[in-house]
Design a protein that fits this description.
By secondary structure, this protein is an alpha+beta fold. The chain is built from three helices and three strands, in the order αααβββ. A hairpin with a 4-residue loop joins strand 1 and strand 2.
């Protein structure tokens, strides 16, 4: 019985340490920011963006939920650099 629980515990620990696959960002246009898209939306049409930041507000609507974000530049691991100047807001 002890061996069974030990095996399950070790299996759980190994699963928790598993890596996630890398995000393919080769097609991401890093020059586009929320402010630049608002200023010239025609330039961003069909482009792929990768934005991140902090959540400012959430709105529960009838069919979906909107999340308002304050965008920050992202580091090499796609985490927001909160000490940097914000890049604008997006929903």
């Amino acid at each position: 019985m002890f061996i069974k629980y030990l095996f399950l515990f070790v299996l759980f620990l190994l699963t928790a340490c598993a890596n996630t696959p890398e995000l393919d960002t080769t097609e991401v246009d890093r020059t586009l920011t929320p402010k630049s898209v608002i200023a010239k939306p025609e330039v961003s049409k069909g482009k792929i963006v990768l934005w991140g930041g902090t959540i400012l507000d959430t709105r529960n609507l009838k069919d979906d939920t909107q999340i308002e974000m304050l965008a920050y530049p992202l580091d090499s691991r796609h985490r927001p650099l909160l000490e940097s100047k914000p890049l604008g807001r997006f929903i």
